[in-house]
Write a structure and sequence with these properties.
It holds the Pfam family SBP_bac_8. The protein is of the alpha/beta class. It folds into two domains: 3-175 and 326-395, D-Maltodextrin-Binding Protein, domain 2, CATH 3.40.190; 178-324 and 398-441, D-Maltodextrin-Binding Protein, domain 2. The protein is 43% helix and 14% strand. It has 21 helices and 13 strands. The strands form four sheets. Strands 3, 4, 7, 12 and 13 form a five-stranded mixed beta sheet that branches. A hairpin with a 2-residue loop joins strand 5 and strand 6. Helix 11 crosses helix 12 (250-261). The longest helix has 19 residues, at 423-441. The radius of gyration is 22 Å and the shape is globular.
C-alpha cells in the first residue's frame, strides 16, 4: 500500500463528509473436503436482463443443491446475524448456522480448521487480517459480485477489502472508536484526558466498583491513541514497511506517559476489564465514560436513552487524538463445500439493506454509498460523531506482518499499566519481538 492508498483509506473515513453533510464457539460444521482449487470455478451461471446491479449479480449464481452454511459472527453483532441469516434462508432456502467467534480470532481459527473442513463457510474479519488470509489462500476472491461491490461501497472500504490489487472481501461496516458518556453523570463531554482525570477524581471509588472512565487498557487497538497522537506509528507512514516501527519513539513514549496518569481514574488491573464487565458497569451508571466502538451503540441507547452522549476522543497531551480505524469485511472460506451459497450470503449480508439493518440493530457505520446517504444514517447524531473521529484516525496496516504486532504490544501495555513498568523499556521489548517475528516469518 503506497502513500496514495493510505491517503485514500484515511479519506475512507471521509464518510464523515457524507454523513455530516447529509444529515468480542462452536467450531464444528458439516463442511467437508478441500475444494479450494475448484471453488472459484464451479459457479452455475445464468443469463438475465435484471433491472438493477443487485439483481444482475444475484442471478449469476444459485446455491448448490443441499447447501447449508455456517457463519462466524461477533457476540456483539449476534442480533443482526440471526436476523440476516433468517432473511437469507427465506430467500434462498439455505439453512444458516451462526457461531460466535471474535473477528480478530477468525483468521487464526480458519488457518487451523479450514483445511480439515471444520471452519465456517463465511467469516467476518477486520481488514488488517486480510493480508494474512489472502496470502495463505484461505479465502476466495470476491469475483462474482466484485464489480457490484466496488460500485456500491466507499473507495476506502474497497481498498480495505483488497490485497495486492485483488478484491477478496465484502465490506459491511467502517469502524473506529469514540467516547461514550452518561449525561446524567458527565454534564459536558471532556475535551482532554486531563479533563477526564479531573472528573474521575470526584467520581472514581474503587471500593464501590465505580470509575470515571473505563476502556480495555491492555488492548493496542483502543490504546493506539496514546501511541499515535504525538507521533508514534506502525510500519512507516504508508503502513507497508515492516522494518519501520515507531512504537517506541519519543512521541509514542510521551503519549504512554499520559496513559499511565489515567491509572488514577481507573485503578484496576488490565485483566479485570473486558467488554462484558465494562458494558454492565456503564449501563448501570457505575462507569461514567467508556471508550468503545459503534457495535455498542444499540445496547447503550437502549440502556441509557437520552442520557447517552458520544464525543470524539479527548486530546492526548494537548494533541488531537489519533485512533485506529478499520473496515469489517465478510470473506468466503476457500475450503467451503458451498462456494456459491457462501458468496451469495456474503453479498446479501453486506448489501445496502443489510448495512442499514446492522446500523439499526447495532449502531454501525455503513460503507455502502447509498446507505450513507439514507436519512437513517445522515440524521443520526451518534453516527456523525464516529464519522468525525474517523477523520482523525489511521487505518490499521493490512500487511501480513500486522498479525505479529498484537501479542507483543498487548503484553507491553499490561506491563506498563499493572506493574508500573517503564514505557520505553516495555515498548522497546515489544518492537524487538515484532521484528524477530517478522524476520522469522520471512526466512
Amino acid at each position: 500500500m503506497k502513500l496514495k492508498k493510505m491517503m485514500v483509506i484515511t479519506a475512507a473515513f471521509s464518510m464523515a463528509l457524507s454523513v455530516t453533510a447529509c444529515g468480542s464457539n462452536n467450531n464444528s460444521t458439516n463442511n467437508g473436503g478441500n475444494n479450494a482449487a475448484k471453488a472459484t470455478n464451479n459457479a452455475t451461471t445464468e443469463t438475465a436482463a435484471p433491472e438493477s446491479t443487485d439483481a444482475a449479480a444475484t442471478d449469476e449464481i444459485v446455491p448448490e443443491d443441499g447447501a447449508t452454511l455456517v457463519v462466524w459472527e461477533s457476540k456483539e453483532e449476534r442480533p443482526f446475524a440471526d436476523e440476516i441469516a433468517k432473511q437469507f434462508t427465506a430467500k434462498y432456502n439455505v439453512p444458516v448456522k451462526v457461531e460466535e467467534l471474535a473477528p480478530p480470532d477468525q483468521v487464526t481459527k480458519l488457518t487451523q480448521d479450514g483445511p480439515s473442513g471444520l471452519a465456517a463457510d463465511v467469516i467476518l474479519i477486520p481488514h488488517d487480517n486480510l493480508g494474512k488470509a489472502a496470502s495463505a489462500s484461505l479465502v476466495l476472491p470476491n469475483d462474482v459480485f466484485g464489480e457490484e461491490t466496488k460500485a456500491n461501497n466507499t473507495e476506502a472500504s474497497i481498498i480495505g477489502s483488497s490485497y495486492e490489487g485483488e478484491l477478496y472481501g465484502y465490506p459491511r461496516a467502517a469502524e473506529t472508536y469514540a467516547l461514550f458518556y452518561n449525561k446524567s453523570l458527565v454534564k459536558e463531554a471532556p475535551k482532554s484526558f486531563d479533563d477526564v482525570l479531573a472528573f474521575s477524581k470526584t467520581f472514581t471509588d474503587k471500593s464501590k466498583n465505580r470509575y470515571g472512565i473505563m476502556w480495555e487498557v491492555g488492548n493496542l487497538y483502543f490504546n493506539y491513541m496514546f501511541i499515535a497522537s504525538d507521533g508514534g506509528y506502525l510500519f512507516g507512514k504508508d503502513g507497508t514497511d515492516k522494518d519501520d516501527i515507531g512504537l517506541a519513539n519519543d512521541g509514542a513514549i510521551a503519549g504512554l506517559k499520559e496513559f499511565v496518569k489515567l491509572k488514577e481514574a481507573l485503578p484496576i488491573k488490565s485483566g479485570d476489564i473486558n467488554s462484558d464487565i465494562k458494558r454492565s458497569l456503564f449501563n448501570s451508571g457505575d462507569v461514567a465514560m467508556d471508550i468503545t466502538g459503534p457495535w455498542e451503540l444499540g445496547g447503550y441507547k437502549e440502556a441509557l436513552g437520552d442520557n447517552l452522549g458520544i464525543a470524539p476522543i479527548p486530546t492526548v497531551n494537548g494533541k488531537t487524538a489519533i485512533t485506529f480505524s478499520g473496515i469489517k469485511i465478510f470473506a468466503v472460506n476457500s475450503f467451503t463445500q458451498y462456494p456459491n451459497a457462501a458468496k451469495l450470503y456474503a453479498n446479501f449480508a453486506s448489501s445496502k439493506d443489510a448495512q442499514l439493518l446492522l446500523n439499526k440493530t447495532i449502531g454501525s457505520v455503513p460503507t455502502n454509498n447509498e446507505a450513507l446517504l439514507d436519512p437513517q444514517i445522515s440524521s443520526d447524531p451518534y453516527v456523525s460523531v464516529f464519522a468525525e473521529q474517523a477523520k482523525n484516525s489511521q487505518p490499521m496496516p493490512s500487511i501480513p506482518e500486522m498479525g505479529n504486532v498484537w501479542s507483543p504490544v498487548n503484553a507491553a501495555l499490561p506491563e506498563i499499566w499493572d506493574k508500573n513498568g517503564d514505557p520505553k523499556a516495555a515498548m522497546d521489548k515489544a518492537v524487538q519481538q515484532i521484528k524477530d517475528l517478522n524476520n522469522s516469518a520471512s526466512q
